[in-house]
Amino acid sequence: MKTVFKTIPILLVFLLLRVEMMMAVVPTGDTKLALFIRDDFDSFSHEEFVSFEATYLDMLSKLREKDESMKSDEAFLKFMFYKVHRKFLKSYEQQVLFSEIFRPSGKYDCVTGSALLALFLDDLGYHYRVVETDYHVYLMVESGGREFMMEATDPLNGFASDKEEIKERKQIVLSDAQRINEKLAMSGVSSDFSMGSPKQVTVIDNEVGMKELAGLHYYNQSLRAYNNEDLRKAYKYITVAQGIYPSKRIKNASSFIFAMAFSN
Fold it and tell me: Which domain of life is it from (predicted)?
């Protein structure tokens, strides 16, 4: 009987969290910003969200005009990257909310910075891919038979067009992830929240879209809440992340956080 009585409260809390998640009012408007901004997790008024959209649409209009006047896609994409960076991406900080980009601080991380660039690219009609690795996210843009790299966390040299440079930068990202994961494995920790000691060291190198990028944003917020010992909020975030992007890492993190949050 003790097991039954312990399980029922856990299930009730889980169901309440699911209800709260479904009842969350997601802002709507003329942009896709609502993919990354939820009023059940963030603190803002309707007027503030409207101002976020107005700021975004104003920049989008200016970028469209510039795109039409530039001689090449490469020239425009380079201009766009640094223009958006100067306007919005002012201060790097890990695991920040996407909405911070539109506040005076201009805080961003690799996920939110990439998300903003992806939103503009999407609305401007450019074909791009989001590259997800263990500890980093960047964009690859295709145009005119060429590929261009955009790393939001590099405000000075984040746009790359040279094939060899892009190849080298990709390898650095993967090598860093491999090195970190090997250190974790030596401590008996798996980088993807798998249970038990890792049998082999692997790295993530996935090409995803904007929807999955939104899932990674809420995954990051879950980790931030967990590190701040707010387990209830961590589980709410990871539940949303898993609903959007049920990757192995996110599903494992969900199981881990659920166990930690409701073990007592």
Answer: Bacteria
